[in-house]
Amino acid sequence: MRLRRQPTATPRRRRPFSPFAAGLIGIVVLVLIAYTVFGGRGPFAGSPFVLRAMFTTQIQLHISSDVRIAGVDVGKIVSIQRIPGAGQAAVVTMNINSGGLPIHADATVELKPKLFLEGNFYADLRPGTPDAPALGSGSLLPAAQTSGPVQLDRVLAALTSNPRSELQTLLQGFGSSLQSPPGPGEDANQDPIVRGLSGGQALNLALKYSPGAFRASALVNQALLGTQPHDLARVITGNERLLRGLADSGPQLTDFVTNFNATLAALANQQQALSATISLLPPWLSATNNAIGPLNSSYAPTQQLARALLPGIRQLGPTIDVGIPWLRQATLLFSKPELGNLLNNLTPAVQNTASSLIATQQLLHQSDLLARCFSHNIIPVGNQSIQDPPNTTGARVYQELWQAPVGLAGASQNFDGNGRYTRALAGGGADRIQSSPLPTGGPLYGNAVLAPLGTRPAWPGQAPPVNRSVDCFTNAAAELNRVSTGGTP
After folding, report:
1. Is residue 374 packed enough to be buried (19+ CB in 10 Å), middle (13-18) or exposed (0-12)?
2. Per residue in 330-372, pLDDT tens?
């Protein structure tokens, strides 16, 4: 039985794009790239920050002119609208990217020319100071915060006929001075190679030496770059720090310059005296040279002193020899068996002394707090007198404190002075007294001749507040005769 081989399915090949479709896709891609490169915004880009500025002078801007902050491009000019009936006034609309934000209310815009090779003008934006409020998108800067460039034609237009003719005369005279040869003796003090030449010819001849001068200038500029990368940047950074330090010195730098100027002025006023002093220096130096010989002769006493010291120096060796045995004995005394054992015995005492010092320090600290509490609170309160009419005694609190034990001692003894108990006797009278109920029965009643005075001074109804989280002396001393609204003394 023969098996028939099944034919395999041939995969279908994808038809390529037609040349027309490929060309169309390429054109679309190129258009999108060109649009993005030349300032277009993509479909996913957010709304730009719009800033408008009012200019009252003639401006030479056009659409897509650059907007720069400190020389860095931060946006483009998107619209220039003339104001009808306002002369040359116009409103310039700018789109600012995120790198130029925030812009404050005191921002300024100035139109400046680009470099010679760049051409045209750009808007120099100064975003203002952080103290001013930030502007929102679509804000308008007034004409007082904008300015335009001053061109030569505008300067000439401001001149009248007389200044123009004088300017022409000045230019003609300047041209004549460059073309006219010098008169006899006028260039006697000039370089010989330019004598007899006119100003223009001398300037043309100076161009002959320009390559060498430019070459030397190039060498100087290359040397200013340093020998290692970033040398010039480090020099600039150092100069910046130096100048910042001079600027921070404030009036000191001004005083230094003033004093330096005064010193130089004084020296300039004494020019003749300085010249005379300098002229006298050579004789003075000669006299000094001649005085060196007698100075050398004056060293004789010094030499005699050195000779007198020689015997002592000779005895220094034997003295050292005698001192060496003493040093040996001192070494043995300071050795571990001698001084070391003494230190071992003294170590516990020193440690205990340290512990006792710590405890003593704590005791002194608590004693200091207690003394401050007595000085700031207890003693001032004890010196007060409680005003409690009609029972005011005029005595101070500490005096009444000592009188209280005497009264208690007198009340606790019996009539013969041999016992210690308090006796209460009921008497007759019109004042009825009710005591607190007893544990085993009801309240007790009695009569008194006089109405009881009660506890004096009167109980305020609540105990004074106590704050245990702060030291006693930090609290103000209590005023015993002042009662607050809530009844707390």
Report:
1. middle
2. 887 777 777 777 777 777 777 788 788 888 888 898 899 889 8
